[in-house]
Amino acid sequence: MPVDDDTRGMNCMNAVDTNILVYFVDCDEPVKRVKAIELINRLIEEDAEAVLLWQVAAEFLNCLRRWEREGRIGRRETLGNLEQVEAMFRYVLPVQAVLWKSLDLSARYSLSHWDSMVLAACIEAGVHTLYSEDFASGSQYDSVTVINPFA
Predict the structure, then answer these.
(1) Most exposed: 89, 106, 132, 142, by fewest CB within 10 Å?
(2) Which is it for the CA torsion 140, 142, 145, 148, positive or negative?
């Protein structure tokens, strides 16, 4: 996906949704894994900062723990995957305003609770682009544009 040169260096902030991180480490989804790896590598190299929303990190860890219970991976792999993701992105912790913003977003856009929470966290953190497969690509939610890198 080409980078829009008009957005470089303008303090545009990016974030990835949980599904991007899951595909980043999921060997059972090779096509999506390649795209997730390419996206994350590009985001790390860009001038614009890419951040890790706390909720996304928690959902990612939940997925890894589920894989552990299913016998797909061991605890060492869970820890390694979490450490790798933490090393690539700065954490953005939730603030109280996220809860109220999520209620507003869910009402205005008919979003699920968790989708509105991720978008609210993006808005509060100053994220301009969220990469996710959970929304229609190009959708605009207040100041956040969602891009589906798999579309």
Answers:
(1) 142
(2) negative
Residue 9 scores a pLDDT above 70: no
Q: Whose CA is closest to 54, among 18, 100, 14?
A: 18
Q: Report the candidate in 125, 71, 115 with the shortest Cα–Cα distance to residue 93.
A: 125
Cα–Cα separations (whole angstroms), residue 104 to 92, 98, 128: 21, 10, 18
Contact predicate 26/66, CB 8 Å: no
Distant-in-sequence, close-in-space partners of 107: CB < 8 Å, separation ≥ 6: none
Residue ranges of domains in the chain, CATH in brackets:
5-147 (3.40.50.1010)
pTM attached to this predicted model: 0.89
| Contacts of 63 by beta carbon, 8 Å cutoff, 6+ apart | 18, 22
Distances in Å between the Cα of 85 and the Cα atoms of 51, 64, 100, 123, 142 are 10, 12, 28, 22, 27
Q: Cα Rg for the chain, rounded, in angstroms?
A: 15
For 108, other C-beta atoms within 10 Å of its C-beta total: 11
Looking at per-residue confidence, does 54 or 7 come out higher? 54
